[in-house]
Structure of LrgB family protein:
Amino acid sequence: MTLLAYWAGDAASRAAGRRPLVNPVLVAVILLAAVLGATGTPYATYFEGAQFVHFMLGPATVALALPLYANLARVRRAMLPMLAGLLAGSVTAVVSALAIARALGVDGSVLASLAPKSATAPSPSAFPNASAGSRR
């Protein structure tokens, strides 16, 4: 269902000329939320079936190293704009996650845990036991 929703989101994005408001991920999230809401499926039940996609998020992020290395000279030339974009994207992710959570009534330690999670979603997937292995 996740991949089908993304496929539909990508098709909508292409049809809209890749306009930012028709982002494939945004469209997929809206579609998934609508289907889960319409069918009364709890998120936990959906997530059990989506474990493979969640698991692949980490390796997909790591796989980006190959094209980055192949274009290292280009990356170095564009370092400043890339860092600015990464900073803006990270700040936007953290602030929006905290604002949405606060608006929904989340507080305390859960709210505090959302800030780093919103900026580093693939990392815990790729390295689930990294911190546990260092506690000896």
Remarks:
- Residues 58-126 form one domain.
